[in-house]
Amino acid sequence: MVRLKDIAEKVGVSISTVSRVIKDDKSRNVNQETKQKVWDAVKELGYIPNLHARNLVTNQSSHESKRRTMKIGWVADPKVAEFNPYFSNIYSGISNTLDKLNYTLINMYKDEIADESRLLKMIHESGIEGIILVDRIDEKTLKFLKKYLPVVGLDFYYSEETITVIDYDRKEAAKMAVEHLINQGHEKIGFIGGGSGPRNESLAVEKRFQGYLTAIEEAGMVSKEDWIIDTGWLLENSYEGMKKLLKEQSEIPTAMFCASDLMAIAAMRAVFEKNLKVPDDIAFIGFDNIEMAKYSTPPLTSIDIPKYEIGELAAKTIVDKVEGKLNIPIKIFLPFELIVRESSKI
Known about the structure:
Blueprint: H1 4-11, H2 15-23, H3 32-45, H4 51-58, H5 62-65, E1 71-75, H6 78-83, H7 85-100, E2 104-108, H8 116-126, E3 130-133, H9 139-146, E4 151-154, E5 164-167, H10 170-183, E6 189-193, H11 207-218, E7 228-230, H12 235-248, E8 255-258, H13 261-273, E9 283-288, E10 301-304, H14 307-322, E11 331-333, E12 337-339
Parallel strand pairs: 1-2, 1-3, 3-4, 4-5, 5-11, 6-7, 6-8, 8-9, 9-10
Antiparallel strand pairs: 10-12
Helix pairs in contact: 1-2, 1-3, 3-8, 7-14, 10-11, 12-13
Domain HTH lacI-type: 2-58
GO molecular function, one term: DNA-binding transcription factor activity
Protein name: LacI family transcriptional regulator
């Protein structure tokens, strides 16, 4: 196992200097360049500065392993967690559950862990024992992170990764939504949503879009390119895209599947401004079943995703991993449900 002495020799400083950097001891000043060299050496040599991570590697005695911080990191944009109804419910599930289990949730930004030296420094300084990932981090960083901490991923960014994942089947959920519209007699069905990828650039690989196409194809119908609105997950693009479709297309769809409720509500506004009626002229179905869906005009049919439960299960799972009760990566897919309201009824 790598020792402080090895790092000191690598950097060309004393063991006490290395110790002060790793412990963030401010009693004596260490210049920033030296600190960076120490953390670079920590990364290169594979030293594990986090107490919990070291315990996992060395199987130290139960007496020593009781020296716990009871802190879990959460990598997500706090603005999204606060203002996006989908993620705020997930966040509540995580936060409330960890609180009941006497753990503290520490917010972390993905930019702060992108550099491996900074990541190691943050692990040590924050004292986190495990981490829940919501924001996308690159494959290299994820691989490095897994060496030091238990990890649980949420949502579609991590569905294909070899880590423990809490999610649901987006493709099947979207297929259920479109099949509901088909069962209502609709044959001209459009799509509103965004793509996958770092910049939401790839609509073709997005699971909800794939579910939409699968339902259309299995029903023997054709999806018209002019009825597909790629919003990049921006509300204004849903509104403007629907306005453009209604203005420019001589033949308009009789129903729209929207990959989120927020997209649906924005698009319905464009329909009302055109003096058309929902669902008489165009039916709508959303996705996520956020609280606002019940209060839109008309109330929005949606696919209910167990958002709070996703967060709750993520919190319980990361605690199980931290406490050594779960030692292999698992994938847990939660069920979803169709909630029918006035926006799609004939």
